[in-house]
Protein: MBL fold metallo-hydrolase
Organism: Parahaliea aestuarii
Amino acid sequence: MRSLTLLLLCTTTLVASLPLGAQEEELKVSVSTLPAPLHLLQGRGGNVIASVGDDGVLIIDDDYTNYAPAYAGVLDGLAGAGEGTPRFVLNTHWHFDHTGGNAYWGERGAVIVAHDNVYQRMSTRQEMKAMDRVVEPSPRPALPVVTYADAVALRFNGGTIEAQHYPRGHTDGDSVVYFVEQNVVHMGDHFFKDNFPFVDLGSGGSVQGYLANVKAVLERIDGNTVIVPGHGSLAKKADLQRYADMLESTIDIVSERLEEGADVEEIVTQGLGQKWESWGGGFIDEARWIKTIEASLN
């Protein structure tokens, strides 16, 4: 296997875009190299891994709904003379920035695979209070066809792909996907590289479970593992360890201050300290992360 260092230095190898009518906005999907037969695809939502080989195409997650045609163009290009439509789509969890393309692919014959709770949440109306959003049930073609309670393995393109459920973390239906022979792991939203995470408490997530799950993944991988976060650039074990250290430290800070009698607004005012200041630059800022920890602990 090529070294992780070389992989992290690899630049984008292909960009496909799709115009959006009068807006003239382009939906771009970039493709970067992973150990064969894998590719990292990045649009606007969650990161996507594509396995492209003799058995066809398999993808992990599929971004927002409107990005599906752009991904189709990229996959057709990667497949060459083969069929670019995925035979399998494996979802790491139910959120729409990871499952938005399900209906597009399901209508074209892809078999959608996910944890039992992904099916339950996608097939019923969900109130995402943290985002002030209501998500209506997904259309039938978007729903998982194959579901599992704990884990599932697929033998595809000469390798073994293991999807392992980790309970009550980002949601109640998260899977981390291991490409065994390539030593590549897709973390789903159990990893927002160098940023505070979104933990969806309303979907059965918890900060305590999230930290436990990240630690469990760290025990399984090694220093050569290529880590694909749900959001962000390629990473290595040291990056994930730093992430776990942040989680543990900030959870401890909030817990200790609550035990001392501070309320959540006082903790927000005090902040988490300079060490973690830069981690609030993503989707979840420091105040929101503190409030998520407090709500999960209580």
